[in-house]
Design goal:
The complex is a heterodimer of chains A (182) and B (210). With 182 residues, chain A is α+β, with helices and mostly antiparallel strands. Helix content of chain A is 31%, strand content 22%. Chain B has 210 residues and is α+β, with helices and mostly antiparallel strands. The longest helix of chain B is centred in the first third of the chain and has 49 residues. The chains are: A alpha+beta (182), B alpha+beta (210).
Chain lengths: 182, 210
């Protein structure tokens, strides 16, 4: 009888151990897949940032009203402290509409873009959002015009046509500061 | 035998425990194999990405792009880029006038065989990097492992749209090409039935220096 009891204790211990190994296995697989999705999301974020960085600093630069002096500050776009710039543009460059989006801040809280990461026959899709705001010399957000704008690209995987939740635990964010040169 | 029959319950439970331990051992071996395989290919992809980025971020360095185009059109075949050459100039400012040496870098994709990935046969390639100095002979200067499953180089405009004929476009307008985009995938060197990651992907969009 004692040896039977000991054997049952052994089977319980092994069962517990098996369960923890199985959990570790699932965790590893999820981590591997997430890491791959992160890699792709980072690539998409970089590409979107390159598109945005090819635009002039402000509409005033495009309009040619700037003079290359400190007085240019007053010419820069500014809406209010909550959203420094107009939101909701449907930027044609990302295929969401017909808005031109030809300077940095036109991308602020634009309509969410669906960007594919095509790799031969494999394609993964990502939702892309952008936030733009003014920053001071310490690169902290400042609710007023300044000569620097921070652009943050937020990327999260999405699976059109299915009920799959995003693999990424949280979206990838890529930030870059752009300064007005004069 | 008599001992076994005398302790039938304990024998059965003991045998079950042994079987569970054996299957657990198999599972752990499989897990280690997958992790090693994924780590190896990630490592190789990361190395390849690093030196390609270093190369491509110097594309056209010290070359007057209004006078010449510092790259050739990427040559594609069956959806992958098989040949791409680009140039930069070294610059020695210690002499007057400054001395330059033209450094051409060439990427060639050589098919090395086929692999079965997720029950699908795919071609695998090795990227061979060659350099030449001042128009001399091409010398091999590194390469990737033979595990590349997909490789593509594209030249992009300011909207990140690929340009069909980059050389003609850059000849007409030297500022028209903004970025180089590289994307590749590598297959794992070996896999098990339950391997979650059978290919690793890499992509980057690199600014062409002015």
């Amino acid at each position: 009888m004692p040896q039977t009891l000991l054997a049952f204790v052994a089977i319980m211990l092994v069962t517990t151990y098996t369960l923890s190994v199985q959990q570790q296995y699932v965790f590893n697989q999820q981590k591997d897949v997430s890491r791959e999705i992160e890699e792709m999301a980072g690539s998409v974020a970089l590409e979107v940032m390159e598109v945005i960085s090819a635009r002039p600093f402000d509409q005033a630069v495009l309009d040619g009203t700037v003079t290359g002096t400190l007085d240019d500050l007053a010419l820069f776009s500014f809406v209010n402290a909550t959203d420094h710039f107009t939101t909701g543009h449907a930027c044609s460059v990302f295929g969401t509409g017909l808005d031109l989006c030809d300077d940095l801040d036109d991308f602020h809280k634009m309509q969410t873009a669906l960007i594919p990461f095509a790799m031969g026959v494999d394609t993964v899709y990502f939702n892309v959002d952008v936030e733009v705001y003014y920053v001071d010399d310490n690169l902290e957000r400042i609710d007023d015009r300044s000569f620097s704008k921070a652009v943050t690209v937020i990327v999260e995987d999405t699976w059109p046509g299915s009920d799959l939740e995003p693999y990424l635990a949280q979206p990838i964010e890529l930030s870059r500061i752009f300064s007005y040169e004069f | 035998m008599i001992i076994l029959f005398d302790n039938m319950s304990a024998a059965l439970v003991g045998a079950t425990v042994m079987l569970m331990l054996l299957s657990l051992q198999l599972k752990l071996s499989g897990m280690n194999l997958e992790q090693t395989s994924t780590y190896m290919v990630k490592n190789q992809a990361s190395d390849l990405a690093t030196w390609m980025e270093e190369d491509l971020l110097k594309l056209g360095e010290n070359i007057d792009k209004t006078k010449e185009v510092p790259f050739t059109n990427p040559t594609d075949s069956a959806g992958v880029t098989i040949d791409y050459t680009f140039s930069r100039d070294s610059l020695d400012l210690s002499v007057t006038p400054p001395d330059t040496i033209r450094i051409d870098t060439r990427y060639r994709l050589n098919k090395t065989g086929t692999r079965i990935v997720d029950h699908e046969v795919i071609d695998v390639f090795r990227l061979v990097r060659s350099v030449r100095y001042d128009g001399g002979v091409w010398q091999d200067a590194g390469g990737s492992s033979s595990l590349i499953g997909f490789f593509k180089i594209e030249m992009l405009d300011r909207d990140a749209a690929p340009i069909a004929d980059p050389v003609a476009t850059a000849t007409a307008d030297p500022t028209a090409i903004h970025n180089t985009r590289i994307r590749f995938s590598m297959v794992t060197p070996f896999e098990t039935e339950t391997t979650a990651v059978r290919k690793v992907y890499y992509g980057s969009t690199l600014l062409i220096p002015n």
